[in-house]
Design goal:
The chain is mainly alpha-helical and 229 residues long. The protein is 74% helix and 5% strand. It comes from Robertmurraya beringensis.
């Protein structure tokens, strides 16, 4: 069967994913044009939050690319894109504070983050192997290959699902810290929510696509077993 009923949900989630990407870029562009009343840049905001939370030893580096911002748990470094590092907009400080939120999670051994770090090597390998096994199993009509592919793909999906609470928690920390530490005023928090909520939607959409794909292959596997009986 070339078309599977689950494909409808996969296409739906994939459509949300594309829409979410446009929404992230649109919200970032919009709120990049609104300067913070404090005049702080993304780098300033990140440094202030880090220092005030016992992380003065964590460096902040500039990296090329748009929205390439991330926290490196191995090097324990916050890396910000140029527009975020130097920009003094609501979008810039929001993204910077979000990445610092991950550094604080690391410091406090936030359970979901610890779990994500532990399964990352497995998920990284699994995400590369799973598609090959699943495609080969479908093409050769070998349920054993599909079954092994499902096991590997499950690890990759688990990683994406665990990522959701990690990202949501980092955004929540960012919003709270920016207001309590005087980086933004209360009436500027609306822009922060727009920027961070749009980014969170991309993770939700990506997780949905992966989850629906996993369910599809599981259904194909069990259907094949029934046909063989």
């Amino acid at each position: 069967m070339l078309f599977h009923p689950m494909d409808i949900l996969i296409f739906w989630a994939f459509g949300i994913s594309i829409w979410a990407q446009f929404k992230v870029k649109g919200n970032f562009k919009k709120w990049s044009e609104v300067e913070t009343r404090t005049g702080l840049s993304g780098a300033d905001a990140a440094r202030q939050i880090l220092d005030n939370n016992g992380l003065s030893h964590v460096p902040i580096e500039v990296v090329p690319g748009m929205l390439s911002d991330h926290y490196d748990p191995i090097q324990r470094t916050v890396r910000l894109s140029e527009s975020v590092y130097y920009g003094n907009s609501i979008a810039s400080v929001s993204v910077a504070a979000h990445e610092v939120g991950h550094a604080i999670q690391h410091q406090q051994s936030y359970r979901a983050l610890v779990l994500r770090h532990r399964i990352f090597p497995i998920a990284n390998v699994a995400s590369g192997i799973a598609p090959l096994l699943l495609i080969a199993g479908m093409f050769m009509q070998q349920l054993s290959l599909i079954g092994v592919g499902i096991v590997f793909f499950s690890a990759a999906v688990a990683f994406q699902l665990i990522t959701l609470p990690v990202e949501f928690d980092a955004s929540k920390r960012a919003r709270n810290l920016m207001v309590t530490e005087g980086i933004l005023f209360n009436d500027e928090e609306h822009g922060v929510k727009k920027v961070l909520n749009a980014a969170a939607l991309t993770y939700v959409a990506g997780a949905l696509v992966a989850l629906f794909e996993l369910i599809k292959f599981v259904m194909i596997f069990f259907q094949g077993n029934q046909d063989d009986e």
